[in-house]
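Predict both folds.
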Amino acid sequence: MSLTTNGTIDWKTSQFYLNFNGNKLSTDFESSGLKMFKIKCLTETLPTLTVLKVRYPFLYNNYEWSCPNDVKTIEYGNIITNKRYKMDENFIHLWTCFHVQQKVIKIIEDFKLRILHNMRTIYPETNIMALKLKINKLHCLIIPTTKQMDFINLSRGLIPIELVFILGNAGCLLQNAWIIISENLNKLLKQFYQEIWIPRCKQLNDREKAVGITQEHKKRGNFKINLLNLTFPIIRYLNEVNKSAILHCDNDL
């Protein structure tokens, strides 16, 4: 809501980006997959643990399901140990986790360099050094934190007016600015997918296997209790037939 009231987002450019398919004349599986990934980033519905806890509360039901990365801690003054990073994993945390900070820096720098390269190729007369200085000052290309999320909004496909404005001031036609931004934002998202999202998914899969969670458990209607993954106590109900106590878990727990 604040992005709309503040007038910081160029909605026409954002719409163009969401539908941008490069130079392809038809839609293929790669383009469809990228479009789906864009929508999930825009709506923050990538299956992070915050989302999974809502979808499958009977599986991801304890505090251990946090950021899958480990952090080095010093205990008793001099003992270095690796412990779980006790931070909720949501879309913002995917970009701000200390574990991926260097990768995020590289992704941002690559995005800047590609834009400068495109501008130099299309408009050879452009003052690249002056444009580089202006791009480096953009809020949307600052390393993201929980308080500075302009870049995270850019990664969701919410393109700020300031980025389009700077390219326009450098002599770039509006249509070309749309293409340059959309093309490079597609590459940024693919980089994020390969370097951050896929390794994270592999880590989560390893954790799920360790406690016996499979795809079968995630099918609709499957509320089987996994004892290895249980934090809440199992409720024992009296069986009316043989008066014995049986293990049970309410669906609305």
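Second protein follows, with its predicted structure tokens after the sequence.
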Amino acid sequence: MLQDALKKALAGASPAGLVASAPPPAGPAPAPAGAAALPGPEGSPWLELLARHRPVPAGASVGRLRQETDQLVKELDKSGNARAARELGQARDAYLKRRESEAWALVKTRWAELQLPERLYRRLKTEDDLPVERVLEKLHTKRAATFSGRAPEPVLAWLREKA
């Protein structure tokens, strides 16, 4: 039956019930989840300063850009250009601090959505051994929903797991 309908459609005859329609209008793209929702360093004063001294690789991760900056700061210091090194280091630190602050805001929003204990969020934020971006990524997985309303210790153990 389906084969007959396809043959008729390909031959030019439109069988009843098979009518071509336009695709649905594209709405706004859904917001990216996890660390992808964080703004990239493009256009930041940090990258503008970095670009003055060496070409910035397109699409480079924040970690790679940070390493490039660290290396350049050392080179500038050795060459006697301490002022430029200090400006670049301060611009990098300001960007990373702002990014971390935005990441914690996203973590807190997701934390509330999952109805996880507020005390555990504060405890997690004060611990330095968990990178906020990894926490953010984990909170946007399917498994995160299974921890909704659970005791703090299993949630913390899951967040500490290396994946």
